[in-house]
Design brief:
Elements: H1 2-11, H2 27-49, H3 54-57, H4 61-71, H5 73-91, H6 99-118, H7 124-147, H8 157-160, H9 171-209
Helix pairs in contact: 2-4, 2-5, 4-5, 4-6, 4-9, 5-6, 6-7, 7-9
Length: 210
């Protein structure tokens, strides 16, 4: 029994449980969602100033994932849904043809991170890994639904279509290309997000206890 308890403790959190998920009726949810979305606009802009490619370093993902990990699935959902729309309104990026799939992907990052923490009480690192996987699967599904039988409006078109079928997108090839391009950002997220989430979760817990 102790062996199974110890194994479960690796995945499930006791001391770092989500302090208090924000509900839709709580005005703080919308205030925090607006703040995190604003940070998700600022951080990619900073990366752009240093000529660091967004698809490589994935700065838009950071505060979407943090919102879900710290404040629950509702916050993750709102930040994931609003961030690409706000960035598109401010900068015109990503291009309009890519906006639906990016919005779909980011929404699932935030939603999955929050559900895995709030409903399954996973530790931050496991919830993060699960959200990163689910978000990319959602991206593959979005590409399949949006571009099946069409020309995909992304780089690497020739690598993302099925051989012998020049108008049929292969979502698995596209997803693999996205992962290959974004591995520096994946590593950066795995290094930076867990400690940031712990610090911010502790701060949020103190605010609730005050």
């Amino acid at each position: 029994m102790d062996h199974f308890s110890n194994a479960g403790a690796i995945f499930f959190s006791k001391t770092l449980a989500l302090p208090k998920p924000l509900k839709f009726r709580d005005v703080r949810l919308y205030a925090f969602a607006a703040l995190f979305a604003a940070l998700d606009v600022l951080v990619p802009w900073i990366f752009h100033q240093f000529h660091l490619a967004g698809p490589t370093f994935l700065p838009m993902h950071i505060f979407v994932l943090l919102a879900g990990l710290i404040l629950g699935w509702r916050a993750g959902l709102l930040v994931g849904l609003s961030t690409p729309l706000v960035i598109f309104g401010v900068s015109g990026m990503p291009i309009s043809a890519l906006l639906p799939q990016v919005t779909f992907e980011l929404t699932f990052y935030g939603l999955a991170a929050g559900i895995l923490r709030e409903k399954f009480n996973l530790r931050i690192i496991w919830a993060l890994l699960g959200a990163m996987l689910i978000g990319r699967l959602a991206l593959g599904l979005a590409v399949l639904l949006l571009y099946w039988g069409k020309t995909i409006p992304i780089p690497y078109v020739s690598s993302a279509i099925q051989q012998g079928s020049p108008n049929i997108v292969n979502p698995f090839a596209y997803l693999w290309l996205v992962i290959q391009q974004g591995w520096p950002g994946i590593i950066m997220q795995l290094i930076l997000i867990p400690p940031l989430a712990r610090v911010l979760s502790n701060w949020w817990q103190k605010k609730l206890d005050a």
